[in-house]
Amino acid sequence: MLVGLVKIMLFIGFLGTSVFSFQAYDRYDEAKKGNPNISLFDVIKDEGEAWVSKAKRVARLEKEAKSSIKIIAVGQVKRALKMYYLDKNKYPATISELKGEYLEEDTQIIQDPTFRYFKTYSGYKINITLDNGEKYQITDTLK
Predict the structure, then answer these.
(1) Cβ 105 vs Cβ 95: under 8 Å
(2) Where are the domains of the chain?
(3) Is 127 exposed, middle or buried (0-12, 13-18, 19+ CB in 10 A)?
């Protein structure tokens, strides 16, 4: 029963992300073309913040379900996180600060080593292992 409830909650929680990704991609494309009204950083930052918001919801579900959830960021989301915690001169947050501020402590942000940085690829992948050993994967990507 709990497993079914978790699946339904996860599905509902991620329905809105695809629409956001398409909007962010359009803005990202416009910024790359040189539109002076759109900041490339703002587009990437918005995408990253939307992802972090989803990750926070997943972390709450993880606590309720007592499950193991790992979140892998790719594409614009990965770039947003990199900008937050690698460019310390402009944006001085560290990955631990991100985890402390946005995520429950037991949720991990993992960078996907297979991701090729220059492909247009945005989204995330979530691997879920429930206590009884059942495994699920949720992805939300835009190629």
Answers:
(1) no
(2) 2-142
(3) middle
pLDDT in tens, 91-122: 433 444 443 333 333 334 444 444 333 333 34
Residue 41's region, left for phi above 0, alpha for psi from -120 to 50, else beta, is alpha
Give DSSP secondary structure letters for 85-123.
Answer: HH-TTT----HHHHHHHHS-TT-EEEE-TT--TTS--EE
**pTM (2 decimals)?**
0.26
The gap from C-alpha 47 to its chain's centroid, in whole angstroms, comes to 8
- Band (pLDDT 50/70/90 cuts) for residue 5 is very low
